[in-house]
Amino acid sequence: MTPTATAPALSPSEASARLRVAPSAARPAHVISMANQKGGVAKTTSTVNLSAALKEQGKRVLAVDLDPQSNLTMSFGINPETLEKSMFDVLVHREPIANVVHQREVDVAAASIDLAGAELALASAIGRERTLEKAIAAVRMDYDYILIDTPPSLGLLTINAFTASNGVIVPVQCEYLSLRGLVQLETTLQMIRENLNGEVRIEGILPTMVDKRTVHAREAIDLLTENFGDIVFKTRIRKSVKLAEAPVRGGSVLSYQPDGPGAMSYRALAEEVLSRDE
């Protein structure tokens, strides 16, 4: 009988490294847009802290700032006014996205106020809705998760984000008027599914800025659950001054107050996102 060739034995460190790499190498990054056309719903806060919580879980994470206000960029301690290149250059001048990535708690594709001119600059471009999708394609194998912080509108930048994404997480302030915008958002997503990206869907609705002491907040959560069922995350993000203070220190609440309620909430959200993804 001819002896069977055997592979050389791996050292413990090589075996460990191979185990760490294998799950990530199996697929490109899962791309999630954080979106709500209403402002002031903790969208950027949730992008920053969910990114950090996923990184804590051993995931490779890229946070993309697609909002001209550059709040995500500033939240990670990057001054948008000093950037030589930003997401504007990626979208308009086809700069490789890797050239605008800064290494912080997670990798950050930074934005500046110049991004406000991107929609006008792209208006006449062929395939303008797929510009971000093409830019991200070059780095999707380098990450496990890519989270996109979108502007508070349903304009061309947000449409680019939806076209590039597998799913959408919608942070919703627990007030009645905030809930009504979900219908318009779903209508936009339906048009994206029909024309640009057949798989994008609402991955989860995240109740934010919750004050459980008020009847109104409890009623809003009940209304969310009644209308959207299991798509509503079980995690609730409570109002917390620490969540507002963390960006001043240039990082997430997980680094600013690791054992606080805000950090624990976003860790719980990361667990939910991972379980739904599996």
In brief:
With 278 residues, this protein is of the alpha/beta class. The chain is 43% helix and 13% strand.
Structural account:
The protein has 278 residues and is α/β, with parallel strands linked by helices. The chain has a single domain (26-277), classed as Rossmann fold (3-Layer(aba) Sandwich). The chain is built from 12 helices and 7 strands. It has helices spanning 12-25, 43-56, 71-75, 87-92, 118-122, 131-137, 156-164, 176-195, 215-228, 241-245, 253-256, 261-277, and strands at residues 30-34, 61-65, 101-103, 107-109, 145-149, 167-173, 201-208. Strands 3-4-2-5-1-6-7 form a 7-stranded mixed β-sheet, with helices on both faces. Helix 2 crosses helix 12 (261-277) and helix 6 (131-137) crosses helix 7 (156-164). It is globular.
List keywords for this structure.
single chain; 278 residues; alpha/beta; Rossmann fold; 7 strands; 13% strand; globular
Q: Overall mean pLDDT score? A: 89
- The shape, in one word, is globular
Classify the beta-strand content into a percent band.
Answer: 5-15%
* N-to-C CA distance: 44 Å
Largest sheet: 7 strands, mixed
CATH superfamily: P-loop containing nucleotide triphosphate hydrolases
Q: How many DSSP helices?
A: 12
Radius of gyration: 20 Å
Main sheet: which strands, in order across? 3-4-2-5-1-6-7
- Whole-number total of structural domains: 1
Predict the CATH topology: Rossmann fold
Work out the number of β strands: 7
At the first level of CATH, the class is: Alpha Beta
The percent range for helix content is 40-55%
By secondary-structure content and strand pairing, the structural class works out as alpha/beta
Write the CATH architecture name.
3-Layer(aba) Sandwich
Give unreliable regions as ranges: 1-25
Order of secondary-structure elements: HEHEHHEEHHEHEHEHHHH
